[in-house]
Design goal:
about 140 residues; flat
């Protein structure tokens, strides 16, 4: 496990890099805000680090984020040159930790979307039940 504290131009961040039991590389980005003192960093490590890692492990999706390998086909040289030029224009994610953070961000987004969908369905069902009860009371004549 490795904790790196860095300044990105406006805020101080902590980058936690670790491997789990299956040797899957994980990275978490933690916002400190202003420049943290040594005492604050030690307090973060003692009190918040393990809960942050546990939370990150809970949010990990099972097989949805695994990319499948594509079969290698022989490409036309012109097409290959075009693809190389497109790849050069794309922004490069420079480190393994940036890739892990972007993957965890996308998995968190999927989980939040799923949870909000469930909440909306529960709210809709609750409103329907209230409406049915009101209709029943009105039918009774009370």
């Amino acid at each position: 496990m490795k904790l790196t504290v860095f300044f990105d131009g406006s805020f101080w961040y902590g980058l936690i890099e670790y491997s789990d039991f299956q040797n899957n590389y994980r990275a978490i980005k933690y916002l400190f805000g202003k420049e943290p003192k040594d005492v604050e960093i030690i307090d973060f490590i003692d009190n918040h680090l393990l809960s942050l890692i546990a939370k990150n492990d809970k949010l990990k999706l099972s097989n949805n984020c695994v990319k499948k390998q594509q079969s290698i086909k022989k490409l036309n040289p012109k097409r290959m040159r075009r693809e190389i030029n497109r790849a050069k224009k794309r922004p490069v994610l420079s480190t393994k930790s940036q890739l892990a953070i972007s993957e965890s961000r996308s998995s968190n987004q999927l989980i939040k979307h799923h949870n909000s969908k469930l909440e909306k369905a529960a709210s809709k069902q609750r409103k329907f039940e209230i409406k049915q009860e009101k209709k029943y009371q009105k039918h009774k004549g009370h």
